[in-house]
Amino acid sequence: MIPQDTIEQVRQATDILQILGQYVRLKKRGRDFWALCPFHQEKPPSFKVSPDKQFYHCFGCGKGGNVFTFLMEHESMSFAEAVRFLAAKANITIRETGTDQRRDETERLNYAHEVAVEYYHKLLFEKRYAVVLDGYLTDKRGISRESIELFKLGLSGETWDGLLKYASRKDLKPEELVQAGLALKSEQKGTFFDRFRQRLMIPIFNLSQRPIAFGGRTLKKGEPAKYVNSPETPLYNKSAVLYGLNFSRDPIRQANCAYVVEGYFDLISLYQHGIKNVVASSGTAFTAQQARLLARFAEDVYLFFDADSAGERAALRSVEFLFDAGLEVKILVAPPGDDPDTLVRRLGPDGVDELRTKALPYLDFRIRESERFQSGLVVREKLARELAALASKIADPARRGMFLDTVSDKLGVSVARLQAAAPAPPTAEAGVATTRIKPREIELLSLMLHNPGRIDDIILALSAGDFESRRLGRIFDAMATQYRQFGTIDAGRLVDTFQGDESLAVITELAARDWPADEIDLLAGEVLGAFVESKRKARAAELMAAFRKARDEGNEAEAQRLFLELRTIHGTGADTDDET
Ligand SMILES: [Zn+2]
Questions:
Q1: 561 and 457 within one domain
Q2: How many angstroms does the Cα of residue 328 sit away from the middle of ligand 1?
Q3: What is the DSSP secondary-structure string of 168-233?
Q4: 260 and 227, same structural domain?
């Protein structure tokens, strides 16, 4: 367990802008910062980060929270991991209390990968593997020692259990390695063996620089599978990861553009030669998630291919996701006989730069490709249909419209005809069902989060039961408890209380509301007044009903008591409408 005061300390030492800025492109507007939401697909940005409140909130999908929840949701960290991660950044030592030293599952899986990276990396430098290190990596592929260190390249040996043995000395059980995708269990014999053998090991990192998977390139001639990759695990979601982004994130953001190459070694080679704004798709089609991920850091994308059969390349199969994410897609084809790796080794970064000036926007590239062998109306018709079909896959209506306009321009076909060729998709604007909540209850809680002067009055006057929404009542309770303990109400602390609860979205929405600073006290007073008044009316109605019932039943004493109580209640209020 991490002591509460350490958590407080970490919270205070952490700046949400600094942390979130590593994951999204923040643009300042007024006192707040805005970005494209990392949790849903969108344009324009509705993800707001408030440095004053140390808070983020998306007006599009409702996700929100503090720096801890962000890491938990976005990096799949546990709360404790997020605290440890931020503590390390802030140079705060954590003294964990209690006997609860058992790290949770993701932490163990991460640890297993760290041990594996270390093991494979060490092995690469053993004398007996000089043929791989010097012969293959250095001489044949031209990879520098610096790059080997940076990308933590390694090697898995011939033995069946090299990693298993090494890991057991590091306190890891075979089952844990199986869960991490690093070992396999033989069903028949019940024994364990390493998943990767005789392969060059390329660790795949998440954006927090922690290893989560491996790509393994064969070192044997004639091996059918050139690459074997880690399976999906709780840590590793293939479709959400872009290889190399942990290294290239800042360069990509600075350049506002990214090269997308296919192989790990294309990336390593470009990076080593100074072209650092690059990610690798690892030869699979782009997913919507990957496209969105990239769109958080850049607006332009260059798909960089070998000369041969570029038109059939995997990344092109899913180009609609790139458009959908709002990216400007251009195609860069290496000259015949070259790939990105050989090109940059032959001509250096200038060679790539020169090639880039000749990159074609995706549409021009498609038109040129399709007219390479034949031209004329038939080809144009076919292409129009293909591009209309592509457009129909673009979910964002504005994006789709722009795309169709451009296609129409370039092909000389009207937009109407294009749309007829492939109708637009049904809009999936399915709104999230939210329970109807009284605006006043929301307003009051939101004002409380801004610590108005009358907060004491509010807490004294109301209780959780006064809220029609039970959820809001619970939040009110938590605020009151916090206020009594700390003397202020802090949204960040509140988020911790409601960790993993549906109420979290409500809290972040409350915190994201802006109130004019000089009117907060006034507004709080007004809303409280209205609240008390409606509470009074509700109570009066209740008493009136009971009074009538007692009177009708001939219960004189009870009727008298209720009548007196009604009088007191009416006496304190402004208007009296008995008949409610
Ligand atoms: Zn969102």
A1: yes
A2: 21
A3: HHTT--HHHHHHTTSEEE-TTT--EEES--SEEEEEEE-TTS-EEEEEEEE-STT-S-SEEEPPP-
A4: no
